[in-house]
Amino acid sequence: MALSRGGMAAPLPLLLPRRLAAGAEPPENVVRVPWALRLRLKRGAQRRRRGQKEEAAAAARPGKLLLRSRRPELSQPRWQTVGRWERPQLVSAGWKHRKACGDYFQLEPSQEAAPALQAPPPDAEPGPSFAAMGLQPALLAGLEGLSIGRPTAVQRLAIPALRRGRSALCAAETGSGKTLAYLLPLLDGLLSRPEGPAEAEAAAEAAAGPASPRGLVVLPSRELAAQVGAVAAALCRPAGLGVRGLTGGGAAGGLRRQLRAPGTGAAVLLGTPGALREALRRRFLALGRLRWMVLDEADSLMDDSFIEALEEILAHTPLAAGAPGPAGPGEARTQVVVVGATFPTGLSQTLGKFTDVGRFVTLATQSLHRLPPHVQQKFVRLKGRDKLPELLQLLKERPASGGAVLIFCNSASTVNWLGYILDDHKIKHLRLQGQMSAAARAGIFASFQKGDVSVLVCTDLASRGLDTSSVQLVVNYDFPDTLQDYLHRVGRVGRVGSKVPGAVVSFVTHRWDVDLVRKIETAARKRTGLPGMDSSINKPPPKGG
Fold first, then answer.
1. Of all helices (H) and strands (E), which one includes residue 67?
2. Could you list the residue range(s) of the whole structural domain that residue 519 is in?
3. Where are the beta strands (DSSP E) in 419-538?
4. Count of domains for the chain
5. What is the pLDDT of residues 212-259, one digit of tens each?
6. Domain assignment of residue 67, yes or no
7. CATH number, domain with residue 495
8. pTM score, whole prediction
9. pLDDT confidence bin for 325, thresholds 50/70/90
10. Any domain includes 476
11. N or C: which end of the chain has fewer CB within 10 A?
12. pLDDT (tens digit per residue) in 151-200
C-alpha cells in the first residue's frame, strides 16, 4: 500500500479497467460492475417499467375487482386474465412468515345470482319446465305446494337422464338443488310403473314381516335425513306414496317403531348407515324389492366411520350383474344414483364390489368444483390468540337484521370451548357436533332453521347437504382440513332460495392452512376449478381389489 507524505495510506482505485490507451493514465476511482449484476439490475429496471405500465393501464381502465388485497398492487381487476401456465403473484405467497399476520385478501362477487339460477345465454334455447319434462301430475302438484317454479341447472340435466333408468353419478355444486334432481325422476318411476302381481304379493307378505321399500336414500346424518324426508313427504303426499325416516341413536324397539309407524306403507325409506345396518341385522328391513337407491353426500358416506355399514347395506340390495331384479329374473336391476358436490377417490372401488360402475353415466354441471362466483370470500392471516377477539368483533358489529351465522370448528372440543366463551359474552347460540347424544342433537338444527337462534357453532357435520338458505355469514374459525371441506362450508351461503348471496370469512393461522389458501387464491385468479377434485368414478377398479 502506498503511503503519502504524511504517513497516511493513499486511496487506490477499487478495480481497474482491463485495457488502457497507450500513454493514458488510469482514472483515480473506477468501479467495475460485474456482468451478472448488470443483468440483474437491467431486469429489475424492466420489471419496474412493466409494473408502471400495468399501473398506468389499470388507472386508465378502472373497473370492478376480482380480488381485493390490503396491498393495492396485488389486487386483480375483473378484466385481467391470468394464463393457464402463468404463475400469478399471490397475496398469500409470504403468509408462512410470522410478519404476515394481519394481512388479508378478499374475493369479490363477479355475479349476483347463483350459477344454478343463471339464465341461459340470449342465443340459447330456454331449458324445459318441470311439466315439459313429462313428470307425473301428482309430483307437479307437490312442487306447487313447495312453491318451486322453475328447474335449476342440475335439475334440467339430471331429471331427463334419470327418468331413462340409468345408474348415474350426479355431481353439482353445493346449494344447486340436487335433492329434487334425484327425488323427482325416481319418484316418477315409482308412479309410472305400479307394482305388478309378484310385487303386490311380496308387499302383502311384507305387511306382516320386515319393511320392504321400493326406494332407498342413504344419508350421512340424522339432520340431513330429516330435511330430505320433509321434501320427499311433500312430493309424495299428493301421489299417495308413503315415506319413512330411519335414524339411529335409540333402542331396537325404536327402529321397529320408525319402520312400522301408522299410515300408508313406506314406499320410500330414508336412513343413516348405522340405523339401516342395524335394521337389516335384526330383520326389521328387507331390500329385495328396491327399484332405486340413492347415496347422498357420497364423500361423507365413504368416510371410515360409515364405509363398513355402507358395504353391508349394498350387499343386501339386488345390484349385482347376475342377480335377479326387484320383480324377479329378467327385470331391470336396481338403479343406483350417487350424489354429491365432491367425491372420494375410492368410490369406484367400493361400488365395483357390487355393481358394474362402467355402466354409470356421469351428470356434472359446469360450475362443479369451482369457487362460488356470487359469494364474497375473505381470508385473514392471524395468530391463534387473535382469532377469538376477531370473531367477537364480527358478531358484535353484525346488525340484528344480518341473517343467521354459521361458525365452523374442526373438532367437537373446540365447539364446546367456543360455546362457553360465547355464553360469557351473552351471545345467544346453538351448538352442533357429532359427539352429542341423539337426544341432544334432536331438533337443534331445526330450531336454527326456524330462526329461534341466529348463531350456530358446529363441526363439518353441518356442512353437508343441509339447507341453510337463511345463513348470510359463514365464519371458518378453524380453517378446513381439505379443499373439499372448504367448498362444502362456503356452499352454506348463496344457495338456491337464499335472499342474499352472503359472505364467508376464514381465519388462517397454521402454516399448513396457507398451502390450501394458495391453491384457492391461484384458482380464483385463473378462474379455474380447485385442483385435485376430480372423481374417479369412471376409472375401473384395480385388479384383485
1. strand 65-69
2. 75-107+371-526
3. 430-432, 455-458, 471-476, 503-508
4. 2
5. 999 999 999 999 999 999 999 999 999 889 999 998 765 556 788 888
6. no
7. 3.40.50.300
8. 0.81
9. very low
10. yes
11. N
12. 999 999 999 999 999 999 999 999 899 999 999 999 999 998 776 555 55
